[in-house]
Amino acid sequence: MSATTLYVPRDAAAVSVGADRVAEAIRREAAARGAEVRIVRNGSRGLLWLEPLVEVVTAQGRIAYAPVTPADVAALFDAGWLHGDAHALRLGDITRHPYFAGQERLTFARVGVIDPVDPDDYAAHGGWKGLQRALDMSPAEIVQAVTDSGLRGRGGAAFPAGIKWKTVLEAPVSRSTTPDAAAQGTSDSRFPTPDSRPSKYIVCNADEGDSGTFSDRMLMEGDPFCLIEGMAIAGVAVGATQGYIYLRSEYPHAWRVLNEAIARAYAAGWLGADIGGSGRRFDLEVRLGAGAYICGEETSLLESLEGKRGMIRFKPPLPAIAGLFGRPTVINNVISLASVPFILAEGGAAYRDYGVGRSRGTLPLQLAGNIRHGGLVEKAFGLTLRELLYDYGGGSASGRPIRAVQVGGPLGAYLPESRFDTPIDYEAFTAIGAMLGHGGIVVFDDSVDMREQARFAMEFCAIESCGKCTPCRIGSTRGVEVIDRIAAAPDPAAQQVLLRDLCDTLLHGSLCALGGLTPYPVLSALDHFPEDFEPRKTREAAA
């Protein structure tokens, strides 16, 4: 009799609620009963409130049971779950769950479905087709396909990926030392010598540091070959032979999965001197950052990757012209690069058919905070925030009214209920003074104090500032002090004027988006929730 296959997530979210213990309990129980089982540690399907979610391969298909604890395992065997039989935890085919209704899973099509570190399983589910097609195209044709798709950077800036790639493809190769070393007339033994460096680089920004975001982590842990394939395609497209994944140190599970997947991609011939038998080279490494939020900014990331302190570089030159070690460099985030295999496999038009306006394709949206059904929803641009919060998220976890949501990480604007009908679209969000950013959405019910949230934004900026520019370094600290004075002052009007003036300085005077975007959450809290900025005594009397 053949072994029954069970899928138990190795995703960090599932592990945090006991997935490893569930897998071990299944092994022990199966051994005690003489049942042959094969346990595959897959990625999470994205229904995080149901983790650990276990799927059993039966004659009826893959049947899900969730959430499973070690204490449930014996009863599940008794109920006949290896045959897909009934049990209180039985959910059936998880793809028929209402949470999946209407989702367009393009980038996340294989996450939760395959063994993340098996290149053959990846190939069996459509993997490597994009790279194979790219190897039969000219670099300009690959770049044109990405341009035609309408793909924009999914890391927050939403810059068209095709323009960035075209710039690197056409950039002349410099043989100079790094910009800093050249300016100082010195050399640094930590750096490769100029003649030994690759002419161009592909760098993946996997420093996912925004609150409420986890799509990069889920992709890297659940389908790392998709990222590897996307980076290899980028290398072929622009003539780069070396790639780096800059990963935040807080992601140890992703670190292990990525390194195992890269080793197996080399063994299978999808990385190295002869990718896919094409005679073209592309090498890939994972590098760990030290955990600084500022290193999510691309030039700070490059400084860190070169072994230096993560601080903003002046621009120009842009990284596409003089990036890592002074070479032309494509820097994209995880989801941007992981979107590329679908585009090359199916064509730019197939990807462009999803979405609205200038926001094409899909965006993995992450629901976190005070939300009943937290998790990941991949949807084409165009649905409204209200549909996402209630049709997918199920409303607040507390059952109280949702008062505010912060979209785009700790530097995103706080949006009130009156903005919930805004379509998820880059331009639509810009029009209301907000940003989509990385697609992270943090939900707050009506018990939230928005003055405290504004203060948190300023304090966050003060803590995470690299210190290079005065508006960010000093302005954020002064911002915390002003917000504290608003709470204590009998007449806060003068302090609010000062806070708005300070935000204007941060917005227009900061070197990078850390200081430049901090006004978004502060001003949105002031504009949409002015009652929370009344002096404490006034608020207490009104209550």
From TrEMBL:
Biased composition (Polar residues): 175-190
Protein name: NADH-quinone oxidoreductase subunit F
UniProt KW Iron-sulfur keyword: yes
Cofactor: FMN
Region (Disordered): 175-199
Domain NADH-ubiquinone oxidoreductase 51kDa subunit iron-sulphur binding: from-to ranges: 451-497
PROSITE patterns assigned to the protein according to its UniProt record, in alphabetical order: COMPLEX1_51K_1, COMPLEX1_51K_2
Domain of life the protein comes from: Bacteria
Keywords: 4Fe-4S, Iron, Iron-sulfur, Metal-binding
Family: Belongs to the complex I 51 kDa subunit family.
Organism: Luteimonas salinilitoris
